[in-house]
Amino acid sequence: EQNNKRFPEGFLWGGATAANQMEGGFHEGNKGLNIADVLPGGKERLKLLMNPGFNFEIDEEKYTYPNHEGIDFYHRYKEDIALFAEMGFKAFRLSIAWTRIFPNGDELEPNEEGLAFYDRVFDELHKHGIEPVVTISHYEMPVNLVKEYRGWRNREVVTFFERYVNAIFNRYKDKVKYWMTFNEINSGLMMPIMGLGFAIEKEEDKYQPTYQAFHHQFVASSIAVKACHEIIPESQIGCMIIFAPVYPFDSNPENVLYAHQEERLFNNFCADVQVRGEYPAFIKRYFKKHGIELEIQEGDLELIKEHTVDYIGFSYYMSRTEKKEKTELEKAQGNMLAGVKNPFLKASDWGWEIDPTGLRTSLNKLYDRYELPLFIVENGLGAYDKVEEDGSINDDYRIKYLSEHIAAMRDAINEDGVEMIGYTSWGCIDLVSASTGEMSKRYGFIYVDKHDDGSGTLARKKKKSFYWYKDVIASNGEK
Ligand code: BG6
Q1: Beta-carbon contacts of residue 266 (< 8 Å; ≥ 6 apart)
Q2: Which residue lies with its CA nearest to atom 5 of ligand 1?
Q3: Interface ipTM above 0.95
Q4: Cβ(41)–Cβ(118) under 8 Å?
Q5: Can you count the helices (H) and strands (E) in the chain?
Q6: What domains are there in the chain, each with its CATH number?
Q7: CA-CA distance, 322 to 248, in Å (whole number)?
Q8: How far is the CA of 210 from the centre of ligand 1 (A)?
Q9: Is the separation of the CB atoms in 410 and 420 below 8 Å?
Q10: pLDDT digit string (tens) for 407-431?
Q11: Torsion over CA of 279, 280, 282 and 288, rounded to 10 degrees?
Q12: What's the 343 CA to ligand 1 centre distance in angstroms?
């Protein structure tokens, strides 16, 4: 009789982060400015950034910039990695800040101080037997490439990216086996500025530049896959997408069709190209409909076809419920992916609907379509935490959220036959929120004493979930 509680041997349990949200040291080691460095703190940050008038300058009189200090991982990485090791982490997902390696993005030679920093971090991880899982680009484009080149709209950026990936693959070939190209690549459909590095000036002008920029990223992604396989033969390199399954609001066939179309466009388009190596039929039709004519250079499509990813990394936070005709009132609040409220689900304090079964559905949908190993590289609950008088932090809500999602993953593996590499929960140590710049939106097993107004000692503290996750890992998910 099969044990239905088991996870595969060697399953990569761990946590996930991104350089810009935790490192700080934003000027140290000759680092250049990236998009997150010019992003003010506060709930309005994404609106500000998406405003075509945004100038990508720092204005300290008007705003605060939480990413500048982050949680000071740049100086405290040894302490933090020791805490991850205490929890038993098998893997730690982090990103390399492009601007530590190429401060302006367009230099010819990499910056030695930046390269040396990640050497120290990877060595420290290996000292504790933790496998680094590295995102090459996590919403961290050099500001210079945004200002001078208009981000991924410009083909030249592919060349700069190629230089960057060659530098890091050559440098870290003995230290990093798991890679990912672009974080949540499909977010470019929603917020082009974060992923694609440019703002849309007028809604009707979005189509051509957005998909041209995507084409450049797909070429860049295949260049990275090719180089990774050549330079580090035993490596695995994946894509990374946001996956939020789209449910029809009801059985009205119009809504079923609409949900399917939305899901295909948002969830599948990028992975289709990166996994199958081809633009799918539906998107070609969509290009025609919107008058999109991609500039494709000789050899691009062959490159994309030949150098597809080894696994699918994805983030899962919520599902999305769709209705073809929706009123303002029905719209789900806070859910960046829009949609309508799902009457069966409760939402987090930030309006993100909590849906563990949706994770099992996502794993099934992804595996049915691609039959590639899956890696959940982000999942977690952003919540307010309270430090009690005795210093304890009793985050039972986080434990509940994570254990329900882990159980859904276990069932997808054991009951549905989905193949998985690992699970790294988001923000394993509290860090700066990407969408709001808040510290109070916490995800961690480790509390960081830093607050929205910038105050705090930066001291680290174990939450209740720290001990819980340690048990999960020690029992390989059986507990
Ligand atoms: C993902 C991003 O979208 O969600 C992370 O890859 C981000 O960078 C995470 O932090 C959670 O979002 P937020 O806005 O709560 O930080």
Answers
A1: 186, 189, 190, 242, 244, 246, 337
A2: 434
A3: yes
A4: no
A5: 16, 12
A6: 12-474 (3.20.20.80)
A7: 5
A8: 21
A9: no
A10: 999 999 999 999 999 999 999 999 9
A11: 20
A12: 25
